[in-house]
Specification:
By secondary structure, the protein is mainly alpha-helical. It is built from eleven helices and three strands. A hairpin with a 3-residue loop joins strand 2 and strand 3. The chain is elongated, with a radius of gyration of 28 Å.
């Protein structure tokens, strides 16, 4: 996943020489953790303790009963298999290297870590019968945060890792949510934690929205328009208010009657009374 050559991002901060990358750090930690897991399970292959790491670190339904609270954190250190690890870390690298220069290393780290933790909590709440491993929820949070900030950006994805396809970034979010929902409903690929991926995606979206990124919601546009209109009406002189607001309402009353007025129009008439009271009374000599 990368921006199309036809689109540039001049507002993205360039990497400074010697600057540490949080994205590369978490990718390296993930790869190192899986390397240790792979070596341990290979050495213990065929022995009763073969899955000791999964028993002690994977998030399962016994985390509360057994008092193993650390599993809410440790499940991200493991992966179910090399494919899950490779896909997670590849997507994390591709999305993270675009997101981090925009929001900064601190916000990127919060999105990734908290998104994964909330994903683990969601998985334990709704799908606890299946052990959870990996950072799929954190990766989902990073991807959705990136697509929320640049929803109309054209990115190039490789279908089945071979065929290049250009799509707008916002459609990646819908694809991720759609696949996760199908896996959740059909109880498929539970090891990646589809419920957790949805939770992580929601967190990633909400976090960058509160930072001020992304297109405004309909309710936000409505509130903004109301405030703008109220400010504009407050700046009007009584004569301007009557000409722009009151006269059209009086004409409507003359044509259709007072019962045809909407609530907002009745409110404008009330405001008009206040405006008229502000009009200075001429002094007679």
């Amino acid at each position: 996943m990368r921006p199309s050559r036809r689109q540039m991002q001049p507002f993205v901060r360039r990497w400074q020489p010697g600057r540490a990358s949080a994205t590369m750090l978490v990718v390296a930690l993930g790869a190192g953790a899986f390397g240790a897991q792979f070596i341990t399970e290979t050495l213990l292959s065929g022995q009763p303790t073969h899955e000791i790491l999964r028993q002690w670190l994977a998030l399962d339904d016994g985390v509360i009963k057994s008092g193993q609270w650390w599993k809410f954190l440790s499940f991200g250190l493991l992966h179910a298999d090399p494919v899950q690890m490779a896909v997670n870390l590849l997507l994390l690298f591709l999305a993270g290297r675009e997101l981090e220069p925009i929001v900064g290393a601190r916000h990127f780290s919060i999105i990734y870590v908290v998104g994964n933790l909330l994903g683990g909590l969601a998985h334990w709440t709704f799908m606890s019968a299946k052990p959870l491993m990996g950072v799929s929820a954190g990766v989902s949070a990073v991807i959705v945060a990136y697509t929320t900030i640049l929803p109309e950006l054209e990115v190039t994805c490789h279908l089945l890792f071979v065929m290049p396809v250009r799509i707008r970034a916002k459609y990646l979010t819908w694809a991720l949510l759609g696949v996760s929902s199908i896996c959740w409903v059909t109880d498929t690929a539970t090891e990646i934690g589809p419920a957790g991926m949805i939770a992580g995606a929601i967190f990633g979206w909400a976090y960058v929205k509160q930072l001020g990124y992304g297109n405004p919601l309909a309710i936000q546009r409505y509130i903004f328009d109301r405030r703008q209109r109220a400010a504009r009406l407050a700046r009007m002189t009584p004569e301007q208010f009557i000409t722009a607001e009151i006269d059209p309402i009086l004409e409507k009353i003359a044509q259709h009657g007072i019962k045809s007025l909407t609530r907002s129009e009745r409110k404008i008439l009330e405001q008009g009374r206040g405006k008229l009271s502000e009009k200075p009374v001429p002094k007679h000599s």
